Amino acid sequence: MEHKPSHEELTRQRVEHAAAFAANTLPTKLSLTLSEALILGLLRQGVRVFLTVLGHGSTEVGEVLRIYQEAGLLRTYGLRSEIEASHAAAALRWVTGEKAAVLTSIGPGALHALAASLVPASNGIGVWYLFGDETTEDEGFNMQQVPHHEQGLFLQMAGTMGRAYSLHTPLALSTALQRGAATVDHPYRPGPFYLLLPMNTQATWLPDFNLAELPQSQSLSLGAAEGDTTKAAQWIAEAERIIVKVGGGGRHAGAELITLVERAGGVLVHTPIASGCIPYAHPQNMGVGGSKGSLPGNYAMEHADLLIAVGTRAVCQSDSSRTGYPQVQRVININADIDDAMHYNATLALLGDVRRTLARLNALLPSPGTQKATWVTACTEQKSRWQNLKQERVRHPTLADDYWGGAVLTQPAAIKIATDWAKAQDAVCFFDAGDVQANGFQTVEDERPDQTFTDTGASYMGFAVSALLATAVASRPFYGVALTGDGSFTMNPQILIDGAEHGAHGCILLLDNGRMSAITGLQQDQYGIGFATWNTLHVDYLAWARAVPGLLALDGGRTPESLQAALEQAARHPGLSLIHVPVYYGPHPLGGMGVYGRWNVGNWCDDVQAMRHTIGL
Q1: Domain containing residue 554: CATH number
Q2: How confident is the model at residue 242 (pLDDT cuts 50, 70, 90)?
């Protein structure tokens, strides 16, 4: 039996292994620890970025990362928050396609990352999670484990969130990596994969381990749906008022979506995550629809008689808690997931690749003509009203605010200025949860996908600012703009330090109204009064930002001109900037973009649920 070498010899061997891997000269079989085999396996799958908050439950893996980083094979970033690490990994994959692994210790750190993994789980983003876990010999409670006399409790929690595996048995590594690859690289529903690393198995010696067991990720795809596209084409011909509702799964099907709406004589409405799926300027693009929605988007949803759902999982805010289509009699649902494809009643499901299925369906439709022109005209009239509503907020960018003791910018005005500026810079915009997010997806007018990223799946406060770390770790860096409120920002302010430390290149636009205004507004709409959702303090966020070396702190002022000047100054800064902007909160209609749909929350539930059951869709 081969014995495990001393620490000094093990370090020397790992250095040799890293050099051989770089030169592609590793032998087929190798003696090494489980932790090193794990890192080699992840490298073979293209994982080169490790976002870490190391602790006593992950020091062994951290040592392997140290040696392999020195060999130039990977990049490790030590961070101050597992939540931040998770958000950055999700943003990196979402924006660039680059894979990352989040490495934590046991217990609280893993729980933080598990909570934040709601973002990739909800938005369909593949991220690896490596969690330290309790030892397998059960010698007694390990500090920070779940304190119950049962096995595998953290595995149970992780398995509830997504797919999970414990390396209780070291030689099961190949199966763990294969299942992880199938999850994070899934072609249609990727998500988080949780690999639990018991503290005592991480350093287990694997003599003569066969590296051929380490799987590599593969590119897989489905074909066009084998469903009845002829029947779908017949339904389209028979319908009078067609809506095409696009979710994240249809985000990149632009050309086929345009062909569909033009040939079908329908209009397109998208979820916030699918902004830019076709150019906003296209006359048949009605923009966003749902609980917040828009005038044209919700008008189309309220009056359509045929719904063509494309790559959407019908989140409550995107279909008004299943009351968004009160006149729809038939549904054509194009999706790669059978559960999502069968979400509505009266459905003809076309299960397959969205683009290929759309191409097959489009081939059965007539060339664009004047069919259903009355419907399109009615919707475009609503879009004209919506554009006028937007312009009115541009013409009146400031309102008097009691909290600030004078006139300040409204959120719609500030967001419009910032997103127009970001387009000119070819920058990527991230929106944080809350009123900033809602006003954002109502305001933006994206001409292509991937200009805007908004976590409407989980609405995780602090996602946008943490996402800016992806600008530092990406192989091909980009400029990012995080639009956040004071509530979301203070949930995850670690980016100020970690962004400066690791070289983030972007701007935090902090829209400050001293409250969680989305919830205050909801309380006032439902109960007539807000409660416990604001502060009386005026926090000096600029002083906070100035305390971090290398971070540029800017006062965005109270006018469009002052904000524009601050943005221009931020663009010239080589690192991370924070622009503080006081913004209005209050009842004036010009202070926000308005609400146009329904939502099954609070004291609205009885009415919304009754309507849903009356519709029966």
Answers
A1: 3.40.50.970
A2: very high
